[in-house]
Specification:
The longest helix is centred in the first third of the chain and has 19 residues. By secondary structure, this protein is an alpha+beta fold. It is 31% helix and 33% strand. It is built from two helices and five strands, in the order E-H-H-E-E-E-E.
Length: 100
Amino acid sequence: MALKLLFSTEAKAQLRDLEHDPRTKDLVKLKRVRRCLGLLEANPRHPGLNSHKYAELKGPNGEDVWESYVENRTPSAWRVFWHYGPGKDTVTVVSITPHP
């Protein structure tokens, strides 16, 4: 069962910045981010995402925040941070950013 993705204001802005950046490097990054979001929507536990809890961050209502890999073994590899909710079949993307 596919989940519905919601985006925080920050995540929307980060995705929009990637979509409108004319640099070729970021077009590759955008493709990787979209692939990650597609896998997340289909199955947050997909092995390619390497999803795991991110202990240093909590959602707005105290939800556990998860980290999923956009890329790996890359300097400043990008990640998608997300949490379950607000609805039963919903995932909220909190941030799309290089690994902190």
